Amino acid sequence: MELTEKQKYFFEYLTERIAEDGRAPSLRQAALDMGVSHTAVAQLMTQLERKGMMEREGHYGRTIRLFSKSRGHQPGGRGRELPIIGQVTAGLPMYAQQEWEGTVVVDNSLFAGENLFCLRIKGESMRDAGILNGDLVVCEPRQYAENGEIVAVLIKGEEATVKRFFLYSDHIELHPANKDFQVICYPFSEVLVQGKVTGVIRGKNSEFDGGGE
């Protein structure tokens, strides 16, 4: 079913807001941004749902997923939907995980590549690299890393972390970007590179203070 011009405009608005904020705007905010009533926004959401272009968790939920005719890409090529990895299942690469925390729509021109995935950052160990607690990092799948690159790795097959990678003749070092945290050394067998961090989506609750790992 084709979208009307108004529905296309609203769909593009949602795509851009989710890409910027990591979540859909409130009904009130959408109405203010578009200069229409709350009722008009609610009607547009219902129309997009009926046409299979989005779905909501609950009738008034702000967790929504946007769809298109070709999986993972939005109309006009402006946005694409990436999975946010939740709990990691041992034995599967991160981009193939089935346990998703949700999805985020990003600008396709900024994040190219196949099988991109996102990880939610917990803690402040990478704050000096501009990666804060609550942020999403966008990762390109890769099983190797150059010294100094920021990568997503699996530790002992089950714990996911984001750190700077350094390879030595007899061990691997994972460096934080925060002087309050220590460099950690691992034998080769305990570290699996899963992807290179190619971008950061700022979380709404990100702050330049606080603890964490």
Distance between the termini: 48 Å
Number of domains: 2
Radius of gyration: 19 Å
Largest sheet: 9 strands, mixed
What percent of residues are in strands?
25-35%
- CATH class category label of the largest domain: Mainly Beta
Query: What is the name of the CATH superfamily of the largest domain?
Result: Umud Fragment, subunit A
Choose one word for the global shape. Answer: elongated
- The total of helices stands at 3
Strand order of the largest sheet: 4-3-5-6-11-7-8-9-10
Mean pLDDT: 81
Note poorly predicted spans. 69-77, 207-213
CATH A-level architecture of the largest domain: Ribbon
- Roughly how much helix do the residues carry, as a percent range? 10-25%
Commentary on this structure:
There is one protein chain. The C terminus is likely disordered. It contains 3 helices and 11 strands. The radius of gyration is 19 Å and the shape is elongated. Helices cover 18% and strands 30% of the residues. It has 213 residues and is an alpha+beta fold.
Question: Main traits of this protein?
Answer:
elongated; 9-stranded mixed sheet; 2 domains; 30% strand; Arc Repressor Mutant, subunit A; 3 helices; two-stranded antiparallel ribbon; Umud Fragment, subunit A; disordered C terminus; 18% helix; 213 residues; alpha+beta
Question: What would you say about this model in short?
Answer:
This protein is of the alpha+beta class. The protein has helices spanning 5-21, 27-34, 38-50; strands at 54-56, 64-66, 79-85, 100-107, 117-120, 136-141, 150-155, 159-167, 172-175, 184-186, 191-201. The chain is elongated, with a radius of gyration of 19 Å.
